[in-house]
Amino acid sequence: MTPSVRRLSSLIGLVVVLALAMTGCIQSDDTENAVYSDPSTTADLGLPDNPRVVALGWSDGEIALSLGVKPVAIYDWMSFGAGAKGVGPWATDQFGSDSPEIISAASAGDFNYQQIKELNPDLILNVRAKSDAKVTDSLKAIAPVVTAPANAPDYAVNWKTQTQLIANALGKSSDGEAQIKQTTDLQSRLRSENPAFAGKTFVWGAKFGSAYGAYLPGDARFDTIAELGFIQFPPVAQLRAQGFFASVPVEKVSSLDSQVAVFAPIGMPLAQLQDDNLINSLPVTRDGRAVELAETDPIVQGMSAGTPESLRYALERITPMLAGAAAKVV
């Protein structure tokens, strides 16, 4: 699986078993643990005050960290590295002197269950992940597992749902609500400060290899910008969706020609996007209404991480760029 696909739900309902009445500590392999996937439920998982949390889903560990729980291990989907402690630059300092075990993303979601078991987790987070009943069964043989709600697209559970699921499982529901509110309050403020955004069409497009694509509603990159008042460019809605992403055939690159756009490459230098003849042929690019960002730009990383904290970080930085682009719409 390539990094682009990685940057691209789970068992139905909440299974309540005998383990809920017991401690949240590791149990024998023949004992079923809870599979927690309903964000409206705040069942007591019986976790200790300082639970050992193993975070396997995309950004799951960062959300736990923002709630005051330092994961003992993080699956480093975005390859932030051990120096950054497996999280974005907006979150690294929250670990203090502690460091989690970094599980390399090179395996693209293939877990070493013995490694996870040896971490002796009280709780496993696998929320923003690929729906796979076999994986969930293997994980719940080790400890209680938090997964995405039923029918959530792979790797595309809504960031608010992801946050609330993790917060509820950790017994920090109010803290999760507060994290979400801080982000939605910021979106509301930025929307009111930028009335020119209202009703303008928007695309977050990508170039990878010789191909193109666009992020769709349901992905934090699009949804977060849409909350500022932008709307989806209609041609994008006609493209074939693959979860939260739509491929854009070469002959339909005009589908990216919205009133305002953000373009970022995947797996290549920014220069290859900036030198792309098709991207440069679009009026949105020629007229200076496109914001072009490197894959490693913290704004792009923050939007891709899609946590309340990372979205606030990215919004504060990208909004002035969007304002400059929107001002050029005639």
TrEMBL record:
InterPro entries: ABC_transptr_periplasmic_BD, Bact_iron-sidero_bind. Residues 52-326 form the Fe/B12 periplasmic-binding domain. The keyword Signal applies. Coiled coil: none annotated. It is found in: Cell envelope. Keywords: Signal, Transport. Gene3D superfamilies: Nitrogenase molybdenum iron protein domain. Pfam families: Peripla_BP_2. Belongs to the bacterial solute-binding protein 8 family. This is ABC transporter substrate-binding protein. It comes from Gordonia hankookensis. The lineage of its organism: Bacteria, Bacillati, Actinomycetota, Actinomycetes, Mycobacteriales.
